[in-house]
Amino acid sequence: MSTPDKKSSTKRIEGDYQEPEYINIIVSDPVRTDDYISYKITTQTTFPEYSQRDFTVRRRYKEFVNLREHLKQKLSEKPKAIKFGELHQLPGNNLSSLFGQGRFEPEFIEERRKGLEQFLNSIANHNFFRFIPFLHKFLQDGEALFL
After folding, report:
1. Which residues in 94-125 are b (16+ Cβ under 10 Å) and which e?
2. Which position has the higher pLDDT, 87 or 16?
3. Which domains does the chain have, with CATH numbers?
4. Residue of 63, 21, 58 whose CA lies nearest to 140
5. What's the Cα-to-Cα distance from 77 to each of 13, 60, 71, 128, rounded to whole Å?
6. H helical segments located in the chain
7. What is the DSSP secondary structure assignment for residue 87, as one 8-state letter?
8. What is the pLDDT of residues 97-110, one digit of tens each?
9. What is the per-residue pLDDT across 54-101, written as a single tens digit (0 to 9) for each?
10. Stated pTM of the model
């Protein structure tokens, strides 16, 4: 009788039951700082690509744009990966929200928060994007990314 290797046995809970892999991301707590809004990103996961099961960071919209651009670049390097689905858009911008006070209106902030949450969950569960190290850093590392 062979013994299971360490990696697979760390996920076993009882008998032959193996904990399913999942990732869930919540974007919440928008905070205005000077001339931008930052969002709290809370992640819970069993994906082995992450060093912890629960972690939280704060990100601003510009960092989401940088993340999407990075993923878009990675996708262009591996065009066959599109078979797993496309890269979702970020919640839209319009001129009044970018340059006016509209971007600080509660309705706009809430719509953006929902869109950012949907975007992150779509890429974190994507069969190609979920393995990109830059995404792991975006979700786990509290340092600002390419501002």
Report:
1. eeebeeeeebeeeebbeebbebbbbbbbbbbb
2. 87
3. 6-140 (3.30.1520.10)
4. 58
5. 39, 27, 10, 12
6. 6-9, 61-77, 95-99, 106-124, 133-140
7. P
8. 455 567 889 999 99
9. 999 999 999 999 999 999 999 888 877 767 777 889 997 655 445 556
10. 0.81
